[in-house]
Design brief:
Glycosyltransferase family 1 protein; alpha/beta; six-stranded parallel beta sheet; Glycosyltransferase_grp1; 13 strands; seven-stranded parallel beta sheet
Length: 380
Amino acid sequence: MNKPKVLFFVDRMRVGGIQTLLVHLFEQPEFSAIQPELLLLDDGQEYDLKQKVEQMGIPVHQLKGIWVKSPKDYLAYCKAMKNFFAAHHDYQAVHMNSGPKNFFVLYYAKQYGIPVRIAHSHNTGYQTSSKAQIWLGECFKLPLRRYASHYLACSDLAGAWMFGKKNQKSGRVQVIPNGIELEKYQFNQQIRDEVRSEWDVQQGTLVIGNVGRFTKQKNHGFLLEIFAELCKIKPNSKLVLSGIGEEMERAKSKAQELEIQDKVLFLGFRQDVPRIVQGMDVFLMPSLYEGFPVTAVEAQASGLPCVFTDTITREAAILPNVGYLSLSQSPCEWAQACTELAHSVNRQECTQQLEQAGYSIHEMARCLIQLYITGKGTKA
């Protein structure tokens, strides 16, 4: 008997939380129950994560030359999407992991009779400051809700943002926590010592860390200002930043402007995140907005105290050693919170606590597979 085919949509496979999560899901044994395929748009660039998916033997479809920069691009987009589903519509489910501007994925999936059509909200804001694009996004939420058969979200806030507070409160949105491979994040003192040695960390040094793309959303400029204040409190401190992105050079210039460049390590893109978080003491995330950041789960799984902006859902505070501050509070107040939370948790016990709370990627995969195959979940 053939396995049910499931199509996953994300606009591009650049390094990001959603894309990395998809790759990890594809790797899980639970996903052997289906035949996954991936559908992408084309921004003119090639990405390593796309190649990784192809190397896993998963078919990757790309709408060549299709990328939405302005309203006029939707004409070519709609035609390409229609042609794709005309040729490929033997799916049991379509799982859309993107914002409302891509609702056409769900529209044509419904036109061609695909029974399970999932809209999955991973965020609580738009990745643009353009008023016109935000207005269009708000308009597109209505057809997205209409053509999706199931509403998923990584948090209550992300669900309310995409599907509306009424749908969230009524239970029409199914919240599935972003799971991780918890066993990889189990605290290990030997690994911690090795990593800190590589970073030339001296005994007593406080290491602040962040893992994320260098984008406006992640607010690296403010993060560096916080660290500059922290250095006034604890001069023997280091900041470790893992990630790549368009704002990276601006962040490096900011570090020089603040005269802290010799205390900041820019690691670039790393595939050994479970290892590098072992060497940190506090995880700092002053993002402008987030849905439910996977990195927040990863940090807590390794036993790191965390300091988050209050734009991040309170659901992200899985363990008690998490502090929330407003972006209106001063960098000095943020720095003080970091020093207060440092070394405040028994890191050995945290992985097990997260597993008990349901943040294993195996549990996430199990829930998704059940939804793909049976359609059982919170239906819209």
